[in-house]
Specification:
This protein is mainly α and 428 residues long. It folds into 2 domains: 261 residues, no CATH class; 66 residues, no CATH class. Helices cover 66% and strands 3% of the residues. The chain contains 18 helices and 4 strands. It has a two-stranded antiparallel ribbon. β2 and β3 form a beta hairpin.
Length: 428
């Protein structure tokens, strides 16, 4: 383990990494239920999508572990699966086979871009203060996910959003958050994971943790939807629009997640650069290609990996454990799927607190540095998109640096991204 993952060098050990890997898995295990349900609306087999989700997630996460040695897990991305189902298939009227083809080609292009360092150059083009803002924005974003998943905050016509009723899942989430905070304050090892387990058990008598009458621990997986592509419309404008949207959202979600997770873990250098970033991006691309071949939407790095980092994960061993649990879930899916969102929501909310620490390193005294950081931070939760936070933050950064005459602070890649982001608003 030491040879493979350099545990001592990263100030960790096998026990911490195992706990972190379990924590990461539990906070993102909801994808095993959500993704098959969502993609099934396109006509795909829910069981086949479940198998594809598990296998593609495990492959991508193992590539991340052994090539990049980072505690980052991957799975079909939320938002991207919604775009796949509701916009592309149900909205634009194309078949799910065509949508999978777009995902495949996007992944293949990502592999090419990774080898030519294009994606690495994009990460390096994000200024240091903005990278810290990305970490803070992601913290608020995942805290909002946790709050919304249990109806602790709800849509409210009078105030846009408001507090939900403190009952059922919302009440259980509050209890779980209190438990997690107390365990963390008492410096109990694995406090986030223990909080998830205790909250799940408390949810049984409350009726939130549902255990089916015919509950069985073991179940056999269905075969995946393998190599179901349709290249007949590849040269059409509609297909290009689908392809470009997958490409754009995936690249900036991945960039944002990698920056946020590695910043929180203290794995970046003094300039905010990520170690082995090329290999990390390659893991994302390989996962997307594997996912398309097996029959699922775009695979991307998961922001929930921050929960594992908060539990002590610092190396690829965390990712190995998470990948192993994904593969185990092929046969133990009923056991993993009884963990309710009310039990994982406290972990997400608490990690939001932990990620706020990066805000103290942002230079708010200089408007050209502080304002773009602020915009990046607020756009992520309020636009419900990591990618949009990066887009608007970088646009603000380039504009303010230009108008204040600080052109030397703007890299060539930052100018390129600025032009692409602006052009995106006019290309429909």
């Amino acid at each position: 383990m030491e040879k493979l993952f350099k545990l001592n060098e990263h100030g960790t050990n096998v026990r911490k990494e195992v706990i972190a890997g379990i924590t990461t898995f539990l906070t993102m295990a909801y994808i095993l239920a959500v993704n098959p349900s969502m993609l099934a609306e396109t006509g795909m087999s829910a069981g086949g999508v479940f198998t594809a989700t598990v296998v593609a997630s495990a492959i991508a996460t193992l590539v991340m572990a052994f090539l990049a040695n980072l505690p980052v897990a991957l799975a079909p991305g939320m938002g991207l699966n919604a775009f796949f189902t509701y916009t592309v298939v149900l909205g634009m009227g194309v078949s799910w086979q065509v949508a999978l083809t777009a995902v495949l080609l996007e992944g293949l292009l990502f592999i090419v871009l990774s080898f030519f360092n294009v994606r690495e150059a994009i990460i390096n083009a994000i200024p240091s203060n903005l990278k810290k803002a990305v970490a803070v924005g992601i913290g608020l974003f995942i805290a909002l996910i946790g709050l919304a998943n249990t109806n602790l905050v709800v849509s409210d016509a009078g105030t846009i959003i408001g507090l939900g009723a403190l009952e059922g899942a919302a009440l259980l989430a509050v209890i779980g958050l209190v438990i997690t905070i107390i365990l963390y304050a008492l410096k109990v090892p694995g406090s986030i994971l223990i909080g998830i387990i205790i909250t799940t058990l408390i949810g049984i008598p409350m009726g939130v943790t549902n255990i089916p009458h015919n509950f069985k621990i073991l179940s056999l997986p269905e075969k995946p939807i393998f190599m179901q592509f349709d290249f007949s419309s590849v040269l059409t404008l509609k297909f290009f629009t689908i392809f470009f949207t997958f490409l754009f959202v995936d690249i900036f979600d991945t960039v944002g997640t990698l920056v946020g997770v590695t910043t929180q873990a203290g794995l970046t250098d003094k300039d905010g650069n990520i170690p082995k970033v090329k290999q990390a991006l390659l893991a994302d691309a390989v996962g997307t290609v594997a996912g398309a071949a097996l029959g699922t939407s775009t695979v991307t790095s998961y922001v929930e990996s921050t929960a594992g980092v908060a539990a002590g994960g610092r190396t690829g061993l965390t990712s190995v454990v998470t990948a192993g649990l994904f593969l185990l879930a092929l046969f133990l899916s009923p056991l993993f799927l009884i963990v309710p969102s009310a039990a994982t929501a406290p972990a997400l909310i608490f990690v939001g607190f932990l990620m706020m620490k990066s805000v103290v390193g942002i230079n708010f005294e200089d408007p050209a540095e502080g304002i773009p950081a602020f915009i990046c931070i607020i756009v992520m939760p309020f636009a419900y998109s990591i990618a949009e936070g990066i887009v608007w933050g970088l646009i603000a950064y380039v504009l303010l640096k230009a108008v204040t005459g600080k052109f030397k602070d703007i890299s060539i890649m930052s100018w390129v991204l600025f032009v692409i982001f602006i052009a995106r608003f006019f290309i429909k």
